[in-house]
Amino acid sequence: MNANDSSNISHTNWAALEAMTDEEIDYSDIPPLTEEFFEQATLRVPAAQAYKLIQIDPDVMAWFQSQGAEYKSLINLVLRRYIERDGD
Q1: CA spacing 20 to 30 A to 62: which of 8, 21, 24, 87?
Q2: Model-level pTM?
Q3: How far is CA 21 from the centre of its chain?
Q4: Helices 58-66 and 71-86, interaxial angle, to 10°?
């Protein structure tokens, strides 16, 4: 990106775009997502975000989520207490 890129003004009518329904949008040039596509697809997670990934069993996640909106903080608290207890 150069200095000229940031000075370009969008002429998109965002209000008109937001008001459109799916029936008004032409998706005909988008190929369908087939089984073959998903068989060959690769999930790529940026390295900066990869350290945040953790696999939690669905029932365990459901329990934590049922505890409230701050369930991620609760998971962190439980893990921290486990580490502190294990260190003694």
Answers
A1: 87
A2: 0.43
A3: 24
A4: 110
